[in-house]
Structure formats: C-alpha cells, structure tokens
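Limitations
The structure tokens in this dataset are predictions for the assembled complex, not deposited experimental models. Users should treat interface geometry with appropriate caution, especially where small molecules or nucleic acid strands are included. An illustrative entry is reproduced here so readers can see what is and is not provided.
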Amino acid sequence: MPEPARDLVRIRALGKRFDSRKGLFGKRRSLKAVSDVTLDIPRGKVTGVVGESGCGKSTLARLVVRLLRPSDGNVMFDGVDLGRLSNREMRRLRRRIQMVFQDPYSAIDPRYTVADALLEPFQVQGTRLSAQQARDKVTELLAMVRLGQELARSYPHQLSGGQRQRIGIARALAFKPDFLVLDEPTASLDVSIQAQIIALLEQLKAELGLTYLFISHDLGLVRYFCDRIVVMYLGRVVEVLPAPRAKPRHPYTRTLLDSTFAPDPTQRRDISRLTGEIASAYDLPAGCAFAARCAFADETCRARVPLLAADPDGHAVACFHPLT
Amino acid sequence: MSADTAITARRADFRRSVAAKVMLTPKGGIAGAYLILLVLLALFAPWIAPYPYDAQNLKIASQAPSLANWLGTDEFGRDVLSRIIYGARTSLSVSVTAISVSVFVGMALGAAAGYFGGLFDRAVTTIVDLSWSFPEILLALILVAIIGPGLHSTMFAIGIAYLAQFTRLTRAQILSLKGETYVEATINLGASHGHIVFRHLMPNALAPVIVCGMLATGDAIILEATLGFFGLGAQPPVPSWGAMMSSGSALIFKAPWIIIFPGLVVAVTVIAINLFGDALIRALDIRARLREG
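Predicted assembly:
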C-alpha cells in the first residue's frame, strides 16, 4: 500500500468574491473575502488560522468544507478535488469532513432533543439504526464528549453553552471523520469552559487521529493549541509560522503577538498600537493590504502585492521588508 | 427507538401539551368550546335542527321568536334557527376549505421562494405583492365576478384572496430561519434540501402560519357572509349566514330577527376564532420566541 500523502488537505489559489447590488439598478459591488490562498494542511496536525474579524477566516473555513463554493481555485481533500464532486458525492464525503460551529446556542434546532440531534447525522446519511443501536449510538457519542446519557432527552435551551458545544462536537464525530474544521469553537464560551473544550479537542485528536483546521482570533490560544499558525489579513495569508513559537517575520503578526496579554506583569511589554483603519474589503488597496497601517511600508509596498515566500523551514511570509 | 420514531413520539407530546395549554386558559377554553359546539351543530344539522332548512310555510312568514320557532321565521316562513344551524355548514366548510388550501399553497410557494431565491423568488414576490395591494374583499369580488357565483367559486376566490398573506409570511419565516447556524450545521452533516426544508425550516415556520391561518378563518367567515350578502355565494335555497342577512335587510324594521340572529352568530364566531387564535399564540409561545430570536 502506498504511503498516504503527508497533506490531508491541499488548498490552491482559493478565492471567494461576494457580489452585491443595492436595489435593482444600483451599483454592483464585490467583496473579496478570500484571495489567492494556497495552503497545505498536514495529516494529524493542528493548523491554526488567526486574524482579526473580517479577515476572511470563517469564509475560508466554509470554503474548505464546501458550505460555500469558491470563486477561484480549488480544495483537494485526500486527493479528491471537492469542486468536481456532484452534490450527492459531496454529501457522502461529509462523513469524513466535518465542522464545529462558533455559536453553540443556535447550532442545534430548538425543537430537537439531544438524542434527535445526535441521531440526525445517521438520518441524513441514510444509515438505518435499530432502536437499540440508536440508543447505543447516543450513549457512545455522549461519552465521547464526556457527557452523561441522562442529557439525551434534554432540549438545547436546557443545556449550558459548554454542553451545547460538546453536542456540536459529538454530532461532527458521528461518522468518525478524518478532518475537523473548528470555526472559533470556544469564542462564545467562558474562559474556564474554553479550557475544557480545548482539552477535550486535544484528547479526541489523540484518540481518533484527527486532523484539525482551527480558526480563531485568539493568537494566545492558537499558539497553545496549534502545530502551525497561518496568519490572515484582509483575505490573504500574510504569514505561515511552522511552529507555534516561531519568531514572527511579518509586521502584522508582530503587532498581533504584541497585543496578546502576558499573565506575568514583569513580562509585559509596551504595546505598539496599530494606527490607521483596516482597509475595506470592497475596495482593496493596490499593493499590500497592510501597507496603510505598517510602520515599514514604502512605495513598493503600496504599488505591488507581496507574494508568500517560504524559507527552508517552511516559514512563509508575504512582505517586502520582513523582520529578522 | 429509531431517529424517526423518537421525533414522532416527541411531536405527539408537544401537540398534546399545546392543546392542553389552549383549552385550559379561560379565553381559549370558552372560545374552543363554542367552536367545537358549532362544528358539532354543523356536522349533525339534520338531527339537531328542529325543521328542514327549506320547509316553507307562508302562513307563518316573518313571525317573531316563539316557542315553536325560537328565533322566529323568515319571509318564506322558514325557521331561522334551523337555517342558522345549516348555514354553519356553508360558512365553516367554505372558510375552512378556502383557508386550508390557501395555507397549503401559500406555504409551498413561500417556502420554495424563500429557500431557493433567485428568479423564482422574484416572480412569486412580485405577483404576491401585486395581489397584496388589493383588499381581500375587492380581490374576492373581482374573482367571483369573473368565474361566476356559487359555493365553489366563493371558496376559490377566498383562497386566492388570502394566498398572498401566507406566501409572504412563510417566505419571511424561511428567509430568517435559513440563516440559523443549525441549518448550516445540518447541511454540513450531508443533509439534502428536502431534509432541511421539511425537518428544520417548515416545522419552525409552522406555528406563526397556523395562528395566522386561524385568524384568517375568522376573516374568511366575514368574507363569505359578505359574498353571500351580495348574492354571490351559496345559491338559494342553500342557507348561508350572509344570504340570510341579505334577505333580512329588506325587513329590517318589520322583522329584525331575520337579520339580527345570523349577524350575531357571525360576530360571535369571528370573536371566538380570534380569542382562540390569541390563546394559540400564547400556547405556542410565538411572541416569546420572536423576542428571543
């Protein structure tokens, strides 16, 4: 048997444009949510994507699981081009690609009990379960996310945010997927609950050999949880850190890192605040999107878009004046 | 218990509890009891009504209420009470059938338009908005004028007149529900359009549509009576509340009971339907859910 490829997911030149028009005869506007993203997601690793809100990271997540169709480029999952699959084939493949959503409060139909929600994956995939099998599955999935089976008959509004997020994870795990996209799974939870969910995700990864794409705006969390970090700014990848502690080379990553809170007061540095406004995704500047807020920007930065270039360690940066 | 039986069992619980919640409030209970009584009267009219609806006796024409004719007699000497009981058949069957068809077609159109969007949505919205700009009565009158009077055309006209309302309501519901994370999450599990629409969107959109349908049935009874009053609904000798009032209007000073009692029944029935609808809104917790969401 041939060795499976190192990368489970390969993203090539992926782009997503949203067109909108005000009124019937209004001006057409197009928003570039994601432009030209090329990224490999190695098997069995946690790849983190960070960036401030509106940088396209959630759009990227939805493109990867084909909840959205890309405008350009493609996503290869284990050698299969998702863009070429029929809807039927894609629905079948969803057993292997799953996603956990940001808002656990609305991720479950309010009319469904926990048991209904956990059996829904089997229902939509056309897997017939006997009454006994269904009961066993519910218990098994609840146990997998460390919940007791007494919750099976509860409705979502009777559960806490952390419990709901665990149900969301259990639903995603129903078919033992290979790849899980986590779209800010802890962003709407309390800090103490966040830690529990992250610990659960770490255990599940080890138990089931999962590959994660972890979307977050919290660089501190990403540095703790991820093996590799992808930094996005206005729809583009600006830097790929091959290790969570790698020294940032892009000025944006540097500022992002400086703004994370250090628990030890003696370790706190002066934060260099960003000046200027984030550019509008409707009207991207000609050159580097970060140029307007960057201390090192010059004429070249404002005229041309810097390309992502990797060094031998796999540390890639899209900047004309990378930090050393 | 398989996934489907679990869902079915729970739905049965849910329905039972809603019925209980409606009937146990004073308003809902009284209105519900009245409506059940009316339905029973309509169903068993031949056994309950003291006289046949078309038994004429000119010797006792336009007589005031008496022990023999509790609500008096009309201009042909027919028993007003019997005609009101038989008239319930016409009013209820016309309004309920018309609104049911309207709800069904409206939900299908609205759901398809809201879910798939695009050109179909534009077409449906435009046509519906156009018909929305006419008052229901005017629309129904125009339609009956085109297709001719009678029971069936009354049903058809009322059904079309209220179609816009249900289409718009369902479409708006589906549009807002479509953005819920659980819809995206279910697509992510590999669900088909059918599953999304029938297992998630429709059940969550249903409650407001049912209540709206309930309230529209009250309006439809008035509309049916109006068409009947103009002689465009049920044709004689089939009794309808509207037609009875119409014939009674000629004798309004001489024999007011001919017009008063059918009018009273229309009014009470419409009020009962509205009260019942209110209780249903509370039982289904629609306002609370709107506040939350």
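Some entries come with short summary sentences. For this one: The two ends of chain B are 31 Å apart (CA to CA).
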